[in-house]
Write a structure and sequence with these properties.
TIM Barrel, about 30% strand, alpha/beta
């Protein structure tokens, strides 16, 4: 739990920002040398894809959800205290709660049992992935334990495409919708349909055409049976896009997944690497890897927006397979997440759900290890009848690897000409990419109980200059 929130949530919510004219100087801290300038406007045109306060949200494996929310009890009055504390911090700073998504790998192995006393029974025969999950009516109590106002994207089990499979899906959906109603942001039918044959719930050769046909049929039948509002369903939930994967948002839209008017958003998933494969701190600090993955998403986002639907990264994080010890819960993952989420925001991904609307983001620096982003706030003033957004913050990240064992940390001087008197900054820092205990945000650390320790350090921007060390990130408030 600590790795999920403390090293990602806070760094991300604090570091949603951007800038205008920046100049960079690679230097020892006391002796700056040459300067390069990167221009950014004080105002930009406000797009239709402004971000809301729940932009960074969270996805949970179905069998783990009740532990994160109610310590496994599913008692609506037994909210996990760490979760409660962290959600309180997030709300205080963002003005809204993140969304939660129960679903993931076991989602389509869920069997709804209407007379089951237990909220959830998960049976395992390999590792940490169950081969079947039995959901009882009390599962929804784990949602009721969460603060009012926190919205849910609920992962429904597509199961087998038979009468029995549909009846299970209908019973599960009826229980969820009847109980949660206005807490539901979206309903999600199925998870990563590419893998349905491997799960044994579809024959080999199952295609994206088959999936779209089933999805349209099931969403129509559920909408009619339960009088669901339109649109309420999240479609796709595909594994990371690649040139060889025909299951993707663009293909599904071309095949008519939105034809019935039930589609709210399209979802794709993405991880930087796999727990059992190439997912190391260096993987996360290498921006070339991240940019390569995101290039595919940018194409899909543009195609999805043209058809007037939102595009979300419905399940994403550093390492797939529920994360990797010493990587997903270390400093490299925190600084990667800041860069990753801000970059996704810059090309209009609607929401990012990390596994386990008046803000606009503009990319200002996009180098191999250095990146900078501008966060613009929509203005009430109009320019020739058009809404504009005004520069409010700047986020700067240096993902060059640094380890305290290497000696003194090298610094880069960033000059921000629009940083007038009163501008301030906060810094995210750690001692090495694998650091788990000395990560600080504005001089404070977060304990395993969800409490901040130490005095908050808010530094003034002096003479329009900010020093950022290797492996650090700063948030500048103008």
């Amino acid at each position: 739990m600590t790795s999920l929130f403390s090293q990602l949530a806070f760094s991300l919510l604090y570091l949603l920002t951007s800038s205008n004219a920046l100049s960079i100087t690679k230097q020892p801290r006391q002796e700056p040398n040459t300067t390069a300038w990167v221009d950014a406007p004080l105002k930009i045109k406000a797009s239709h894809a402004a971000l809301d306060a729940a932009y960074v949200s969270y996805s949970f494996e179905f069998q783990d959800f009740v532990h994160y929310t109610t310590n496994g009890s599913s008692n609506s009055s037994d909210l996990n205290q760490l979760t409660s504390s962290l959600l309180g911090h997030l709300y205080d700073r963002a003005g809204a709660y993140p969304m939660f998504r129960p679903g993931g790998e076991p989602q389509d192995l869920v069997v709804y049992v209407p007379d089951q006393e237990e909220a959830l029974i998960a049976l395992f025969d390999r590792g940490d992935v169950p081969y079947v999950v039995y959901q009882g009516p009390k599962f929804v109590d784990s949602v009721h334990a969460l603060p009012k106002g926190l919205k849910i994207v609920f992962g429904l089990s597509i199961g087998e495409y038979t009468n029995e499979g549909y009846n299970n899906l209908l019973a599960q959906t009826e229980n969820v919708w009847t109980s949660l109603g206005d807490r539901i942001h979206a309903l999600e039918i199925g998870n990563e349909p590419e893998h349905f044959p491997a799960l044994g719930i579809r024959p080999s050769g199952y295609s994206v055409e088959d999936y779209v046909s089933e999805w349209v049929d099931l969403s129509d039948r559920l909408s009619e049976a339960l009088s669901l509002p339109k649109p309420i369903f999240q479609g796709g939930t595909f594994q990371a896009p690649s040139s060889g994967n025909k299951f993707n948002a663009s293909r599904a839209l071309d095949l008519g997944i939105a034809a019935g008017g039930n589609l709210k958003t399209m979802s794709e998933h993405q991880y930087m690497g796999a727990r059992q494969g190439s997912c190391e701190p260096d993987t996360l600090l290498n921006r070339t890897i991240m940019l390569g993955h995101m290039a595919n998403h940018e194409i899909l986002v543009n195609n999805t927006l043209k058809q007037r639907h939102g595009y979300v990264l419905g399940e994403t994080n550093s390492c797939s397979g529920h994360g990797k010890e010493g990587v997903s819960n270390a400093y490299a993952a925190a600084i990667w997440a800041v860069d990753y989420v801000l970059y996704a925001a810059s090309f209009h991904v609607e929401r990012v759900c990390l596994s386990g609307g008046n803000i606009h983001v503009k990319t200002l620096i996009n180098e191999t290890y250095i990146s900078a982003y501008g966060i613009y706030q929509e203005s009430d003033n109009r320019n020739n009848g058009r809404r504009t957004a005004v520069l409010k913050r700047v986020a700067i990240l240096d993902k060059n690897p640094y380890d305290e064992k290497d000696g003194e940390r090298p610094y880069t001087e960033f000059r921000i000409p629009h940083a007038k008197r009163g501008a301030t900054y906060k810094k995210l820092s750690g001692l090495s990419p694998t650091d788990q205990s000395n990560v600080t945000w504005a001089g404070q650390t977060l304990t395993g109980d969800g409490l901040f320790v130490g005095d908050e350090e808010i530094q003034p921007v002096r003479n329009g200059k900010v020093f950022v060390g290797r492996g650090e990130a700063v948030l500048i408030t103008l």
